[in-house]
Specification:
11 helices; Rossmann fold; Lipase; single chain
């Protein structure tokens, strides 16, 4: 059984209790704090730097986009009457020009719904520049969207635009079309220039919605298990997606700050967790709690093709990193929920990373898990190891939850992880009497 530990009430929990005693309803006291309309993060794709051609994985985007339109689809968690998008040039060395941007309700195959298309402006203008190392937040767009709806975002890039900032594993099909097709309902080939598909996410890093009251958000910072590496493409079946479906009825958003290959202490396919905590978690509007699922790549990358000469961190190294992350989050009033690291015996067979698992690495994982469960450093603990492991062979993921690579859970495993989250431990005082809904996953045949 999954266990949670909850320490003394935090400041936010005391405030919640005070609001309830003052006569406010449980929902008003927990899911929203009364006040004027406010913005909350409802979707995220953490930015990563583009890597070189000598890395193990292809980047899945052209090195330069020029006179092309990128159309991406994202499923938001909370809805609202207005939204705005966030673009990023975090790892760029020169300004990038966005010639035009639109949002719309998507249909199949890159098409959007007629009548739903809206032009996005930046400071009242259709075009904008994103400076090196910076992000760009759009003006508000009147496009009412319910919770768990999909949004299509189209960006026209008129100039030569080097791809330096992206999110590698979007688990969603996007399209790169020739010319300015930002206002086109169905993307078309032009002058023998084909439409390309991609599962990466160039430039688009966030969507925010305006809510009638100040809503709360939960961020999940993690690695490929959180990013959804083996979740079914285009089905929104990562474990944070299922968690978002559970929390939406309670007026709580979920943003996924997972990066495949992410580590707690070291850079990899993205910067280390402590370096990106402000950007990906603490700087996201409305975030009140963060779930931390990191450490397995710190343990297992050293000695593999990813990091042949790297030193494996010690238990003290890892626990110091967790402590620092918790301290920084607490300094911003954000509650921190730790998770145990899941089983991975036999991980990634038949790949260049087939030495990702070793018994001594698993011994360190079990030591880390013991510390996470019993240290009291976290505000609460989710025991994902207990959720996913095979009871008869606890070093392995149970077959019904295994994607097949013995490291990442499949869709059923992702759903089990989301169902194991105690919402009251995640956000103390949350009224869970209304229940929640987790979409069913079609069983594999």
């Amino acid at each position: 059984m999954t266990k949670y530990t909850t320490p003394a009430p935090t400041t936010s929990a005391v405030l919640t209790l005070a609001l309830a005693l003052a006569g406010g309803s449980a929902m008003a006291a927990t899911s929203a704090i009364a006040g004027p309309p406010a913005w909350v993060a409802t979707w995220q794709a953490s930015p990563q730097p583009i890597w070189g051609a000598d890395f193990l994985f292809p980047v899945n985007v052209p090195p330069v986009l020029h006179n092309q339109t990128v159309r991406q689809v994202a499923r938001i968690s909370l809805g609202g009457q207005r939204l705005r998008i966030v673009l990023s040039n975090t790892y760029g060395s020169q300004p990038l020009t966005v010639g035009k941007a639109t949002v719309a309700q998507p249909k199949q195959g890159g098409e959007v719904v007629a009548g739903s298309l809206r032009t996005v402006t930046f400071g009242g203008r259709e075009g904008a520049s994103i400076f090196p190392g910076a992000s760009l937040v759009s003006d508000a767009v009147a496009l009412p969207m319910p919770a768990l709806a999909q949004v299509a975002v189209s960006l026209y890039l008129p100039n030569a635009t080097p791809m330096s900032t992206f999110h590698w594993d979007g688990r969603q099909t996007g399209w790169i079309a020739p010319g300015d097709q930002s206002t086109t309902l169905a993307l078309t080939q032009r002058d023998d220039a084909a439409i390309q598909s991609t599962t990466a996410r160039p430039l688009l890093t966030g969507i925010q919605v305006e809510t009638e009251q100040s809503a709360r958000a939960v961020a999940v910072i993690g690695d490929s298990i959180t990013d959804g590496a083996t979740a079914t493409l285009d089905k929104d079946s990562r474990w944070p997606d299922f968690l978002a479906a559970r929390l939406a009825p309670h007026g709580v958003a979920v943003v996924n700050a997972g990066i495949s290959g992410a580590r707690l202490l070291s850079d990899g396919m993205g910067v280390n967790a402590l370096a990106r905590l402000d950007r990906d978690v603490l700087g996201q509007p409305g975030v009140r709690s963060v779930i931390v699922m990191l450490g397995i790549n710190d343990i297992s990358w050293p000695g593999t093709a990813f990091a042949r000469e790297a030193r494996r961190p010690t238990l003290d190294d890892l626990t110091a990193g967790y402590r620092q992350l918790v301290e920084q989050a607490h300094s911003h009033g954000v509650r921190v929920i730790g998770t145990t690291l899941t089983p991975f015996e036999g991980a990634l067979p038949g790949t260049p990373l087939d030495n990702y698992y070793r018994p001594d690495k698993d011994a360190l994982r079990r030591q880390v898990n013991d510390w996470i469960r019993h240290s009291g450093v976290f505000d609460a603990v989710i025991d994902f190891d207990a959720v996913l492991r095979d009871p008869l062979h606890p070093a392995r993921i149970a077959a019904r939850y295994d994607s097949g690579d013995h490291l990442h859970p499949g869709d059923e495993g992702n759903r089990a992880m989301a169902e194991a989250v105690d919402l009251a431990a995640l956000l103390p005082g949350l009224d869970t009497s209304r229940g929640d809904v987790v979409p069913k996953i079609p069983r594999e045949r």
